[in-house]
Structure formats: C-alpha cells, structure tokens
Amino acid sequence: MRAALTLRGESLLSRANPLTKFVAVFLITLVLALSIDWVSATVALGFELLLFPLAGLTPLLLWQRGWPLILAAALGGWSTAILAPDTGTILLDVGIWSISSGSLELGLGFMLRGLAIALPAVLLMSCTDPTDLADALAQKAKLPHRFVLGTLAAMRLVGLMAEEWQTIGMARRARGVGSRGTPLQRIRATLGQSFGLLVQAIRRASRLAVTMEARGFGGAQRTWARESTYSPLDIWVLVGGTLIAAAAVAAAIGAGTWNLVWAATG
Amino acid sequence: MTPNRVGGVRPAGVTAQGWAWRHAGRPRPAVQGLDLDIRPGERVLLLGPSGAGKSTLLHALAGVLGDANDDDGEAGDSDESGSLLIDGQPPRAQRGRAGLMQQDPETQVILSRLGDDVAFGAENLAVPRAEIWARVHEALDDVGLGHLPLDHPTSALSGGQKQRLALAGILAMRPGIILLDEPTANLDPAGVLEVRDAVGRCLEKTGATLVVVEHRVAVWKDLVDRIVVLQPGASNDSAVLIDGSPDQVLEQAKEMLIRAGVWVPGHVPATRPRNSAAARAPGSAGPGQLLLAAEKLAVSRERPRRRGFKTLPPTPVQSGISAQVRAGEALTVTGPNGSGKSTFALTLAGLLKPVAGAVSATLELSAGAGIDPYAWKAEQLISRIGTVFQEPEHQFVTGRVLDELLFGPKHLGHGEERVDELLERLRLTSLVDANPYTLSGGEKRRLSVATVLAAHPQVLVLDEPTFGQDANTWAELASFLSELLDAGAAVVSVTHDREFSSVLGGTELALGTPEMAAS
What we know:
- The complex is a heterodimer.
- By secondary structure, chain A is mainly alpha-helical.
- Chain A has helices at 18-34, 38-51, 59-83, 101-126, 130-139, 145-173, 183-214, 232-255, 261-265, and strands at 90-94, 97-100.
- Chain A folds into two domains: 3-129 and 230-260, no CATH class; 141-214, no CATH class.
- In chain A, a hairpin with a 2-residue loop joins strand 1 (90-94) and strand 2.
- In chain A, helix 1 packs antiparallel against helix 4.
- Chain B is an alpha/beta fold.
- Helices cover 30% and strands 21% of the residues of chain B.
- Chain B has 16 helices and 19 strands.
- Chain B has helices at 54-61, 114-124, 129-142, 159-171, 189-206, 217-220, 246-252, 254-259, 341-348, 363-366, 378-382, 401-412, 418-425, 441-453, 471-486, 498-504, and strands spanning 14-22, 31-38, 43-47, 79-86, 98-101, 177-181, 209-213, 226-230, 240-244, 290-299, 305-307, 310-312, 318-326, 330-334, 356-361, 385-388, 459-463, 490-494, 507-510.
- In chain B, the strands form five sheets. In chain B, strands 5-6-7-3-8-9 form a six-stranded mixed sheet, sandwiched between helices. Chain B has a five-stranded parallel sheet with strand order 16-17-18-14-19, with helices on both faces. Chain B has a three-stranded antiparallel sheet with strand order 2-1-4, covered by helices on one side.
- The interface between A and B is large, with 57 and 73 residues.
C-alpha cells in the first residue's frame, strides 16, 4: 500500500542522493516562505513542473498523489481572496464576502505558494526511498543512527496501523460499538477506536523494539551495508535547487512584487 | 561466493544457578530458583504452563530484559538474583551471541526491503560491508528465500516467510544460540512446517545451540534432543520440573503435560461430542433452519479507492462464494493463506461490505432488522451475529473483565443475567476484576468468546479461534461450541485445524487459491 507511493529507481532524480534532494527542496521552500507574492511562486512552480518528468511523474500521477495538497492550496487561496481586507477595486461583493483586486492577488499568491511549496515535497517523496533517506541522514548528515533507524522502523509500522485501524473498527462493531449515528456518537466511537489503536501500536512498538535490540541494535559501533554516496548528479540537483530559488527571488524583485512576510504583516 | 560457509559460529552454552527474575511492577517473580545447564550445541524444547516464565528466560538469554536495578531497591524496579550466563558471561554483555525470534511475524520484520532486513543485525555488530552481503546471501539461501530479489518488499511476504526472514536476520549475526519464542503460533500448518524445517537445516549446518518455547510438541519433538518442563515460581521448589530426552519426558510425564495443556504427540484432548438429539433452548430456531446466506459473494478488505475524481472498486480477493448458515449446524471455512477466508467470514458477519453478490439474513435471523447485515446498527448486529476475532485484544472495549461481559447486555438493555453463567462456564469467575489486557492467551480467548456470546447471537463467527491455544483451552472451546450448536446456534469458523472442525461437524467450505490481485 505504501510502496505504491514510491517509484523504484528508474527516474533520473531517484538516483540522486536523498540528502541533496532534501537540501534542494529546503532551499526552494525557504525562499517561498519568505515572501507572499505571486511572481516568485509562479516562477518556482513553473520550474518545478518542468522537473517532474525527471522524477518519473506524469501529470496524472502527480494529481493522483498530490490531489489533497492541490485541493488544500486551492481552498487556501480561495478563502484568502474572500477574507483578506479589500484593497483596490471591488470585483465581487456578496453579503459579507467580497473579492477585491488586492485580495484576489493575495489569494492567488497564497494558492500558488501553497502549490509551489507542496509539490517539491510530493516530488521528493515520490523519487526517494525512505530507507535510502535514512541511510543518507545517518551517514552523510551524521544524525544519530539510533534515532534515524528507530524512526525508519517505526514508519513501517504506520502502514500496518492503517490496516489495524480498519480491523479494530470492525472488531468494535462486532462488540456493539456503532461507528454510525449522530456526530457525537461518531466522535465517541472514533475516540474509543483510537484508544484501541494506541494500545496495539504500543504493543507492536515494544515488540519491535525487542526484535531490534535482540539484533544488536543500540551499540556505539555500527557498519552500513548500503553506502550512501554522492555522484556528479548531486551537484546538478543542488545547482538546480539554488537556481530555482534564485530565479524566484530575482523575478519577484524585478517585478517589484517581492514582499517579505514580516514586512507585509508588520 | 562465500569462502567459509559455516565459519564463525561457536555454539554457546548456558548456565543458570538459582536464577530469579521479577518484572518491574509485578509482585511475584516470573522465574525463581532456576538451575539449568545447556551444553553448547544442545537443542532444548522448553515446556510449561503459562506463567512458568518461559518467555522471560528467553528474553533474558537474548539480553533484552534490561538492567535490574539492584542498588536502589525500589519496589517499582525489576529484580534479578542468582546468575544466568552464556559461556560464563552475562547475556547483556554479549551483543549478537544469541538470536531471538518472537511470535508475531509483523514485529519480526524491521526494514522494508528483504536484503536490508537481513543485513540489519550484522550492521549492528559492525561487520565489514563486503562480509555483510556475503552473509545476507548465505542466510537467505539457508532459510529458502534465496530466490527472491534483495529489494523484494518485506510487506509482501506471508507469515511463514516473515518468520524465515527473521531467522535469516538472526543467522547473519552468526549467533552461538538461537532462541525461538513460540515461533509458529501465528502460522498456518504449511507455515509451521516451513519454519520448523528451515530451523532444522540451519542448526544442522551451524551446530548452534537451540532453545525453543512451543506448545505443540509434535512439531519440534524430532528436532530437539532434550525437553525441559518449567513450573511457575514457587519459592521452595526448583523452577525445573522435569528434564530429559524427549521420549523419556513424554513417557514419564505424559499425564502431567496433558493436564498442563501441552499438546502431547498422538493425544487429542477429550471433547464433548455433538448430540444431535439434544433439547433446544426455547425460542431458538429449529434445527436446519436457514439463517444466513451468501450468494455469489466477492469479498475484499479494501474500501473503494479514490483516485483523483474517480472511485475505483476494490479488487476482490475471492469471488463467487455461495454458502448457507443454518441453525444448529457448523460451517467450516478452509483454504490456503490469502484465499480470503477471514475476509469472507467478516463479510458474512456484516462487518465488511460485499464487493459483489449479497449476504442476506432470513426473517428467522433478522427479526425485523432488514435483510442486509452490513446495514444493521451495531446493537442489531451483536444480538444476531456475533464475531470473535483472531486477536482477542482487538475486541476489548473496557478495562475490567466483568465490564467487558456486561458491555453487550447493557447496550441491548437485556441479558445481564446470562453473564454469571458465562463467567462460570468459561472459568472467568476469579478474574472478574482483572484488566483484560493482562490475561494470559487462553484467558483472553475465553473472554473474547464470552463477551460476544453475552449478547446472545444466533450465529457465531470465529476467525482462527484455536491459533496458538494450549490443549486445555482448545478442548474447552471445542466442547463449549459443540454445546452451543446442540442448543440451536449456528457456528461459522475459519480454521486450519482439522481436529477442531471434526469436533464441530457440519459442512466445509473450501476456498481456492487466491486470485492474483493486480494492483
């Protein structure tokens, strides 16, 4: 189920070191978080869309994987357009909702920004195997291996928990706990089911911890069966990330829309 | 590929002298007064009733019990006394000297790719990279998984394959002693043999010492050369009750082992026979009365998936199933792993929505609730169809045994008077105040059956009710169900257990090899 979300090593970007991809995505995200304007977001988004084929993503696959994020970005933009203080000409006025050219611009900026920040994350996850990411974080970024590998093993359990949630839901229905009914009843049923899941998650996690400890996990010395390596491709990934970030800033400053978050709100 | 295939394994010996262990927060020690010597290369089957401390001993040998804080002597901490040594050293000080396999296959898998998972232990022992991969290939060959690619997803393995994978991960550490804690309790018969044979081959090759805890003696009898029976900690007695060669122990202590619930080879526990002429409870349906029917059913656990704007129906794991459930008759659902037995049972029980076809309740069963069990409200469902899940803990909804039993009747507003009888009948009376999660495996199973029956359903659906159960619980369960059948209830059980289904009688629904799910 989880595996379907990750493409296996065919695309160009899937061969790059996960850490480099991580840094490149971080650069783009950082720049976009600095300013609320539609020019920088549009430029970044345009470049990102060009990059998707390199990660083996088609527009259809992108939509299938990223539709919740895409919808969220669109909703965020729409509500900003409605709710932001009106400036400029009023374009639409229905009761308490009004859209002005100023709020529309802000809303559009918000939506594009949401997309431009979310899509690199979709891209990163779709061309990066979690195990390889853990290897890179531990070997290259020198994060503590206990923490990295512990998290990796726990993430595998998350997939199991999705199945467990369904089973517990059925098992509780078989005990007479209805998950249908009034909203209050549903909330109570969900809380009970969450508790059941929590108990099972803790049990599974402690058994998994015993398994890991029994395999010698937790010692100071450790070798790595898979070496995390850099290749010339990683330089291009970094250069690419930097260029996208720089182009976004340059375009916004050139267009005069560069608008630091704290300056805008302060 | 590997120059020294058997290289590196030095069988380990175990010595315990007056060893005792009390878990943190428990009033009584789990093991007390243990004196035991296991020679290097010996193969030991460890038996004993639940609560005899078998798992505690294995965990201690694996070095995963943690430190007993002897110094500050706080009551909340665990206590250790006496000595338990591997090759004269404390197990905790010898990372990788012992390898442990536990019961639940899901938690024996650590990483998502086959090769990485096997390599994990060797990495932790700081084995050089080139040697790790040599060991990984060798270990996978040894457990019979060598044909799979190293990046094969571990989530796609069956239960038996997961346990063999765990064995490979252990072998790659080159341990001197292999510890198996009920390694096959969660597996179907084919999986049990798979794992047992893989263990046998590996021991043959490496000469490692083996300690295995398991109820089913027949499975391990020919592989071990010694049986040790433990008894629950009593301060004056020795923890070891009987110790000797398999034949000798089975000969001498047969009656005692049978009483303790051990599956002694060649002995089928006595059960209450079906009595077709039994008096029926007033108000229940007549014998052979049709209660529930499945017609051309296609089943799946998946819900319809959203792909963008489209909704895709799930791929059925099995389809075209027709079956009838009749009052006073048993229906046994059998088939290989992945054939959708449990999924079918859950669909029949009104817990999953059919992908195609229909489940329909007759008027006799529905009593005005409508024809489709899946559409019933939870209260309507439990007084008509009761489902006992494979894992009892999934069904616990309160923190006390008595509350568990009262839960159904309270929701229904009737039937509380039946609870005492069930407590009595399933030997739970002394446990009414206990927390359900703290019960032993057999007690949990009995409780889960009792809680479902407290709502007085006419149809009882059980998913692998005998998995991992000792012989006593098995016999009690089979007898109890045969009694229910005679009283006019219908029992549907998903099981691999031939002896169990022969006690219940009735018809068998054999599901075929799974259709390949193209994802």
